[in-house]
Amino acid sequence: MSPDHNSGYPEESLDPQDWDELRSLGRQMIDDMLSYLQTVRERPVWSPMPEDVRAAFQEPLPRSPVKPSDVYRDFRKNVLPYPTGNIHPRFWGWVIGTGTPFGMLAEMLAAGMNPNCGGFDQASTLVERQVIDWAKEMLGYPSQASGLLVNGGSMANLVGLAVARQSKADIEVRRQGLQGVSRRMTLYSSVETHSSVAKAVEILGLGSQSLRLVKTREDFSVDINALAATILADRAEGLKPFCVIGNAGTINTGAIDDLDGLADLCQKEGLWLHVDGAFGALAALSPRLRELVKGMRRADSLAFDLHKWMYMPYEVGCTLVRSEPVHRGTFSLIPAYLARTKRGTSAGPTPFNEYGIELSRSFKALKVWMSLKEHGVDKYGRLIEQNVDQAQYVAKRVETSRELELLAPVPLNVVCFRFFSPELDEPALDRLNEELLLRLQERGAAVLNSTKLHGKYCLRAAITNHRTRREDLDLLIQEVIALGKGILDEGFIGNPR
Amino acid sequence: MSPDHNSGYPEESLDPQDWDELRSLGRQMIDDMLSYLQTVRERPVWSPMPEDVRAAFQEPLPRSPVKPSDVYRDFRKNVLPYPTGNIHPRFWGWVIGTGTPFGMLAEMLAAGMNPNCGGFDQASTLVERQVIDWAKEMLGYPSQASGLLVNGGSMANLVGLAVARQSKADIEVRRQGLQGVSRRMTLYSSVETHSSVAKAVEILGLGSQSLRLVKTREDFSVDINALAATILADRAEGLKPFCVIGNAGTINTGAIDDLDGLADLCQKEGLWLHVDGAFGALAALSPRLRELVKGMRRADSLAFDLHKWMYMPYEVGCTLVRSEPVHRGTFSLIPAYLARTKRGTSAGPTPFNEYGIELSRSFKALKVWMSLKEHGVDKYGRLIEQNVDQAQYVAKRVETSRELELLAPVPLNVVCFRFFSPELDEPALDRLNEELLLRLQERGAAVLNSTKLHGKYCLRAAITNHRTRREDLDLLIQEVIALGKGILDEGFIGNPR
After folding, report:
1. For residue A448, what is the nearest residue in chain B, using CA coordinates?
2. Which of A360, A364, A416 is best to mutate for the B interface (most B CBs within 10 A)?
3. How far apart are CA B310 and CA A274, in angstroms?
4. Would you give the end-to-end CA distance of chain A in angstroms?
5. C-alpha span between B476 and B463 (Å, rounded)
6. How far from B201 is each of A173, A180, A488, CA to CA, in Å?
7. Are B244 and B272 spatial neighbours (Cβ–Cβ below 8 Å)?
8. Stretch B101-108: mean pLDDT, rounded?
9. Cα–Cα distance, A172 to A156 (Å, whole number)
10. How many CB pairs (< 8 A) connect A and B?
């Protein structure tokens, strides 16, 4: 490469030498991927990776080019066959969305346009603003609220709690920070609250000891009396309560806090109400289920995901904030090189980067925009009801089976249960179910995950899957019982862990 | 939708009714998008959106389905023609990457597989680990370091500074927070540091007043003597200096701090060295430029982007951290429902969610993995050199033109200059260049942005564009001079702003 700037030099780019060759490879990819999605039901949900495939990922940094079709061959051979499993109709582990074929295509379009969605006067800005307006409409949230698409629930909670901190601090928290505050700022939520809330509290410098996790009622919703008492006691000790986090769908059991009760309390006590509705908020899309979460419209900030119970491809979450000025006041930071103009590329409404942490942002709004048009929101409501009905169905099958035990109420789409045998004590039941879970995954029959409730190891099915059918759930019940019996028959009882 | 769980009910999914129809739509999209990229040079860089197009984004939430091909038609009509402009060969505004056709296809594959890359025993985990190993190799960073792909430079800096806070706090910062610390923790950097560092400092609860921005030398690199003196003075006042942020390529001018000098100082003073190498770190890919940034290998944490100067589609940035245990200790948080197992889906190495804020994560590693294989890292090195040579070329054209003035040194790929006329005073020069910038954008000829240096309004070209050719830069110079003269001829001098 000649450093002589006066002479010509060979100019290179990353565009293909042969566009037609890439076009035909692209078409091949489309065909392959759509077939892959069409036939997902025929494959195991999850498979362990063979050692020789693992070894393929040890190659050093590539220095020289490889033909695109050969790179794609590597992908087909070593990557594509070993997914998480969440696109499969019998994946119900954690709370992981499914994605859709059209969503995949939308992601391709977004990556081709490759806009920077931090701001600017461009179509992606208007798409995202429209998607946020639609989100408010879907969830019954006030139309004057501000909003931001983010990468997921963790970030959505972090953004909401940052705004809460900004709004309620006695000091200029952006300038002064929390260093040297005289009264510790404290937050309140139930023990069932998602770990991302604790992570956000830590990131924000509030300290996890400032997050008071109070007990729940029988149904795993927060005990508001206990919460109110904790606030009172903390005030008496000279602390500064500033925020309550309500759950619209807890991670363990799908429990929904009494959000109206929390809103009343926050109003009375002058506290910020943040609702973590990662998946549960979407219950608002169903006329039948809407009532369960209606209190969330009173939240000061609301976090939810579209890549979970709206089945969009990763990543897309959202934070809505009732007060636009407070939201912008938390994050807006405009150095000289980001000066806005009245005309040209930098014109347009307030840039999204003034509402969150990220300055450069991808076009994650496009898949939401295209998918909502493709299906219409009513269909999403029906699918959410379908998943809730499916969870109820599993719960009923569990309750009517001698070999299975339901371990928590099923208010939404999460079922906690276990294989049960009266011959086993609690530690043995834990061990048996732990082994059962792994074998279920290893057989590729279904993926559940586990949790602990009242100290008991549970199998946990969270149904945020548009591909699941009744027959899949019948197979789950059948497999769990067969595996449980098999492990019992092996003389598992009393084996050391 | 029947809530009767015993009877059959009509099961729906979001999969297409007709897979072949979607397959042919997908092929059409591939053809269209590749043609769109192939012909990008023929279109204006940026165009304002007509009012009727803007109005199309006011439609209420769609309730009923629309045919996928009609949704795509909407996209083609109202979205695709109005991009940011950054995929165009004459876009040099801010520091925004270009994307590639193959990167677009990789994003499609990633969205189709749609894995959750928070952890799990699956191919995406190994792809990301390999990409991080490659990143360390590319940048000459220690091989035992840990790393995480993130959404961009803002998050990469936030992660790095969170680890710094964790490592250097006298207290248990995760549990106690910064509330009530007795000695204010302070950070040091130059006034040219990117705003995302200040944003991270605010988010972390440190307070922007804790970020001491010290002056730069003539070349806009940090004045290390001034920085050391500020640290000394702060210590004398009872504060607790804990971190220095070095710049490998400042946003305004591409200046590179004396990173070895900063590393020496941090070693002596017991401070954490974080390097913000958003784009500049990638200079390490060029044998000719490597020396400029070699001190960054001594950083405790290093942030950089792959969607900027590695031309990947949005989003993908990276943080590398020298000490894996400190990195993990900052973020690891494992509730019951995330318990890892020795076998099954939850097996595998430490999940990525223990190294950062996000729990669910998309497969952003795939485009990096596929692109590095496609081109080989040596080609990226050549393209980075090409961009630097192009910046030098612009600088030379500016310096040899009577009508233009260079306003800063050009150590890398950023050129700050302005149209100049001896007849104009400084305020008039500012106004003229401001108008010039907007007209340049509105004509669709080129996109630059502006900044201020020593109070002067500058036109700023940041070249992180693999499509740019020498002829594009010639056109830029020609347009800037013609526009400047035109504005002068209009009698612009002395016009009120």
Report:
1. B345
2. A360
3. 38
4. 63
5. 12
6. 11, 15, 55
7. yes
8. 98
9. 23
10. 595
CB neighbourhood size of A180 (10 A): 15
State the smallest CA–CA distance between residue A26 and chain B in angstroms: 6
Task: Please give the backbone phi and psi of residue A147, each rounded to the nearest 5 degrees, phi first.
Answer: -160, 165
Distance to chain B for A481, nearest Cα, Å:
19
For residue A392, count other CB atoms closer than 10 A to its CB: 17
Q: Residue A223 corresponds to which tokens in the numbers above? A: 């005990």
Q: Is the pLDDT of residue B244 over 80?
A: yes
- Sign, Cα dihedral of B205, B208, B210, B211: positive
Mean pLDDT, residues A476-495: 88
CA distances from residue B308 to A27, A365, A394, A432, B294 in whole angstroms, order as listed: 28, 21, 48, 51, 20
The structure tokens listed for A5 are 């700037």
> Quick check: A259 and A296 in contact, CB under 8 A?
yes
Local confidence band at B5 (pLDDT 50, 70, 90 cut-offs): very low
A181 in contact with B at a CB cutoff of 8 Å?
A: yes
Note whether B207 contacts A179, CB cutoff 8 Å: yes
Written as one string, the DSSP assignment of B371-430 is HHHHH-HHHHHHHHHHHHHHHHHHHHHHHT-TTEEE-S--SSSEEEEEE--TTS-HHHHH
Note the pLDDT of residue A3. 41
DSSP secondary structure of B194-217: -HHHHHHHHHTTS-GGGEEEE-B-
Which residues of chain A from 381 to 410 reach within 8 Å of chain B, CB to CB?
382-383, 385-386, 389, 392-393, 396
Q: Which of A337, A366, A459 is the mutation pick for testing B, counting most B CBs within 10 A?
A: A337
* B73 at A interface, C-beta within 8 A: no
CB A293 within 8 A of CB A280: yes
Q: What is the DSSP code (8-state) at residue B149?
A: E
Which tops the pLDDT comparison, B187 or A336? Answer: B187
Contacts of residue A71, Cβ cutoff 8 Å, sequence gap at least 6: B102, B370, B373, B374
Residues within 8 A of A (CB atoms), B 343-362 only:
343-347, 357-362
Angle at B428 between CA B427 and CA B429, to 5 degrees: 90
How many residues are there in chain A?
497
Rounded to a whole number, what is the distance in Å from the CA of A466 to chain B's nearest CA? 5
Which candidate from B100, B203, B470 shows the least CB-CB separation from A204?
B203
- Mapped onto helix, strand or coil, the DSSP state of residue B319 is strand
pLDDT one-digit tens code per residue, B317-354: 999 999 999 999 999 998 887 888 899 999 988 999 99
Inform me whether the C-beta atom of residue A138 falls under 8 Å from chain B C-beta atoms. yes
Answer whether B313 sits within 8 Å of A362, measured CB to CB. yes
Threshold 0.95, pTM exceeds: yes
Give the number of other CB atoms < 10 A from CB of residue B431: 19
E strand intervals along B220-271:
240-247
Pick from A242, A358, A363 the residue to mutate for testing the B interface (most B CBs within 10 Å). A358
Chain A residues closer than 8 Å to B449 by CB: 337, 345-346
Neighbouring CB atoms inside 10 A of A218's CB total 8
Compute the mean pLDDT over every residue in chain B, rounded to the nearest whole number: 95
Separation CA A228–CA A192 (nearest Å): 17
Q: Searching chain A, which residue's CA lies closest to the CA of residue B239?
A: A179
Alpha-carbon span A406 to A421, nearest angstrom: 13
CA dihedral B278, B280, B285, B288 (to 10 degrees): 180
Query: Does residue B431 surpass a pLDDT of 50?
Result: yes
Which residues fall within 8 angstroms of residue B316, CB to CB, at 6 or more apart? B149, B150, B151, B152, B305, B306, B307, B364, B365, B367, B368
């008071």: which residue's tokens? A212
How many whole angstroms separate alpha carbon A89 and alpha carbon B120?
18
